[in-house]
Every structure is written in C-alpha cells, then in structure tokens.
Amino acid sequence: MNKALTALRDGLLPPSLRGDEPAGQGRAAQSSSHADSGVVTVPNAFTALRFLLIIPAVIAILQIQERPWMPLVLVAIFSLTDWVDGFLARLLDQFSEFGAKLDPIADRIGLGLVIIALTVEGMLPLWAILVIAAVDVALLVMLVRLRLREGMAVTWAGKLRTALTMLGVVGVLAGPAFDWSWLTALGSVCVQVGAVLHVLNGIGYARTALRISRGA
C-alpha cells in the first residue's frame, strides 16, 4: 500500500516539490536511474494500447453525430492510460528507455490527430491546431539543424500543458455525449489555453536545445 501511495504521489507532484530528483526529467530520468526492464513490460503494453486507440478514436470523432458516446469513451481511455503507464512503471519498478521515448510520441501523434479531427468537425478553432503544428515543426527543424540526436527531457510544464489539453478534449467530447453545450465550450477554452502554453513550452524547449548545442 505504501508503495502504491508513493507511486501515486510521484505521478502527481513534480520532483522539485518532492525533493528527490531533479526537476523536469520525468519518466526518462527514472528509467536512467534504474535498471532497464527492456521492451516487454506492463507499462509499455499500456503505451502500445494507446497507439491502438488512436485510429478508432479519430474515426469515432468523425462519426460523432451517429454515436456521440463512442469518441468520448475512446479518448478518455487514451488520456487515462497516459497516466497509468507511468504509475505502473513506478509501482512495478519497470523502467524502460524504450518506453520513455515511446510515451511522448504516443502523446504527440494521438493528441494531434484527435485535435485535427475535432477541428474538421468544427468543434475546435482552426488557429489552435495551426499554432500547435507550427511550434512542433519549428522545434523539429531546430533539432535537426542543431544536430541534436538525443531528445530533450519532458518538463513538468510540458506535462501540465498536455494534461490540460487532454482534459479540454475530453470536455469537448463530453458535451455532445451528455448534450451539454457549456461543457463543449469549456473544453474548447482549455484546449486553446493549452495551445498558448504549447507556445511557451516550445520557447523553453528551444532555449534548452540552444544551451545543449552550445555546451556540446
């Protein structure tokens, strides 16, 4: 029980508040400070599940008028497993370098495609997806030009932005499911705030990339 509570605490509080590891390193730092459990682990199975949910979730969103509950259920499971895999890694001491790299990729692809589908359905403003895409493309170009081979650690500010955006997406989808238009509007606001935070986080990542490049 104590181990489960500790794993739960570590997933909710940033390292700077816990005082037990450097801030802004997350699952990647944990995997580097523990023995690598390899590819076949329980947390990686949940990450793989997230990849499998992406296409069905996008299709369900594009058919939301026919089955308004389906996209909400699929996206909610996708969002929940984003936290579950990290919780299980801490609980079971199954830290994986492969999983640490795969997890943010699932976030980027899944969340990006879901937001695009919602924009196509007219449930989110076009500028939000354009801003998110522009920041990601700019960072990718910068990393390529600076020839940085290793990805940068995910920060807690970045995790907060991702959590807020996912929460907003779930809210947008919950509106049609419960027939509550105010919930869709509230979720849209959360996604738009997440887009603004994405810009700020992008600036932070760019500054970190420049420092790493100059140090190298």
UniProtKB/TrEMBL annotation:
Report the transmembrane regions from the record: 45-62, 69-92, 126-148, 160-178, 184-206
Q: Which GO terms describe its molecular function?
A: CDP-diacylglycerol-glycerol-3-phosphate 3-phosphatidyltransferase activity
Report the principal subcellular site.
Answer: membrane
Biological process per Gene Ontology, one example term:
glycerophospholipid biosynthetic process
Could you identify this protein by its name? Answer: CDP-diacylglycerol--glycerol-3-phosphate 3-phosphatidyltransferase
Tagged with keyword Ligase? no
Keywords per UniProt: Lipid biosynthesis, Lipid metabolism, Membrane, Phospholipid biosynthesis, Phospholipid metabolism, Transferase, Transmembrane, Transmembrane helix
- Where are the residues of the annotated region Disordered? 1-32
The answer on whether this UniProt entry bears the keyword Transcription reads no
Q: Which family does it belong to?
A: Belongs to the CDP-alcohol phosphatidyltransferase class-I family.
Q: Which Pfam families did the record assign?
A: CDP-OH_P_transf
User: Which PANTHER family does UniProt cross-reference here?
Assistant: CDP-DIACYLGLYCEROL--GLYCEROL-3-PHOSPHATE 3-PHOSPHATIDYLTRANSFERASE 1, CHLOROPLASTIC, CDP-DIACYLGLYCEROL--GLYCEROL-3-PHOSPHATE 3-PHOSPHATIDYLTRANSFERASE-RELATED
Q: Please give the organism.
A: Kocuria palustris PEL
Compartments (UniProt record): Membrane
Q: Name one GO cellular component term.
A: membrane
- Membrane topology field: Multi-pass membrane protein
